[in-house]
Every structure is written in C-alpha cells, then in structure tokens.
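Worked problem 6 (solution included).
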Amino acid sequence: MSFDDVIFILEMIGTVAFAISGVMVAKERKMDIFGAIVLGCATAVGGGMIRDLILGEIPPAMFTKPVYVTVAFITCVVDFIFERSRTTETYMDKIDRNRIRSNFILNVADSVGLAAFVVVGCRTAVNAGYGANMFLACFVGVLTGIGGGILRDIFAGQMPLIMRKRVYGIAAIVGAIVYCGLSVIARPAGAFGSTMIAAVVSMIVTVLIRFLAIYFHWNLPSFR
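Solution. The predicted structure is:
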C-alpha cells in the first residue's frame, strides 16, 4: 500500500467523520433531511474545496472526483435516519442522555475529521510542489481541517467553533506543524522514519489536544 492510498483512506475517514458532525449540528438546530445533507456535505468537502482553490486546482476535487460528495451524501442520509429514530423519547432524562451522547459523537467526529484533513491538506500542498514552503503547507493543512467546520457553523447560524472554545484552531495548527516538521526530518534518508510516521504522529497529537481540551475545558482567553 502506497502513501497515496493511505491519504485516500484518510480523506474517506475525514469525509465520513465531518459528514456525521454536520448531521449532529443539524439535529441540534432541528433541521429537516435536506438541511442535514447540505450541512453534512458542506462540512465534509468544504475544507477540501477551499484547499484546492488556494492551490489553484480548478475545478476542485469534489467536482472532478464525485466519490467525496457521494460518500458524504450517503453518510448524511444514513446518519439522519439513525439519529431520527433515536429522538422518539419523551422523558426529560432520556432527552438529556441523548444530548450528552450527541455532544460526544460531535466532538469525536469533529476531532477525527480535523486530524485527518490537516494531514491531507499538508500532503496535498506538498504534492502540488510547495513542499519547500512550510508556511504554505501548514496554512493549507489548517484550512483544510477547519474550513468545513467553519462553513457548517455559518450555515447553522452560529459562531464558528474555532473562534469560541476548546482550542480547536490551535490543535489544527500544532498538527500541521508536527506533520510538516517530521516530514522534513524524514527527507534526508528516512532518518526519523517516513511521511507515514509523520501522518500518524500528527493525527495523534491533533486528536489528543482536542480531547484534552474537551475534558479539561481548555479555552483561550476571551472577552467577557
């Protein structure tokens, strides 16, 4: 299995994870199935679209490779049906448990999708010939990771998560720096390992920061 195959798998993981997070937000906002699909698909492919536009890849991959939108669409429909079947409870305690569960799924899906797409974004920038420009590669990686979530929150009529809590953007930035940094170290002769190791470590760091931030309620200083 080549590293490009791994990148494609990461893209699929990120697409499914972000589509689920979009549906969970749609559920919170009491949207219908069309709204859930739009929100889920925008979350799943929005970051990749922004990435491709920055790198000059026109039209973006979501239009030339329909597999991304197709996977996002199917995920949204299946998750909508599944989540809707679980909202028939009438007692408040069940409703509270359902809300806690929804928040947990949203956080997990958001974290996994963020980690996967940060790596995919950095790698895409490198493949486009910008491997020597670490700032651009990191920037593209971060935008790929957070772009879909920003679109999701804007469409849902709420302040984007990256601007309000749980060091969301910091996790993406650190993950991108880790991937690009380890990739540079690995270049000479596989001294540190390979880009595969860089991808794995980057994803672990990104998810770990997100989970620690959620568990310990880490937030950046903000206006009161």
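Discussion: The longest helix spans residues 92-130.
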